Fold:
Amino acid sequence: MQAHQWLQNYLPSIRSFRQLPEPIQAWVDAQLVRLKNDDFSAVCLPLRLQGGDRQLVIRLVKDQYTDQYLLLLAEEQSIAAALATLGLTPRESEVLVAIMQGQNTQTIGQALKINPSTVRKHLENIYRKLRVQSQTEAVAKALERLGTIH
Structure:
């Protein structure tokens, strides 16, 4: 019952797991609508629940034999923690994760409660450490070094 234990750890406010917890059910419903509106080959992005330096990753997959949808759960190191293995500070990792999510320096500054010029300084440090010259290169290099892309 590893899945039950993970759900308890990542959703401690939920008392019973006889049905899917609301945040997971809402995500599943949204994915199913997306799949019905697109085509069945559409890739569903996983749901990630953060818990310190770990995250619970939930994927929705279609069983090719039964035509039913399954939820696959796995616990992984968080992206920010994995980026620290590249020599980035925790704050630089947070900035790079936000860049990977498509946020701009203004939005990142507001979210992290820092000045946008401080965000730009963190980006300069990230570029230097990863030996790149742009946000796109930084994201690609981080994904490559983390084994996400080749």
Summary: The mean pLDDT is 85.
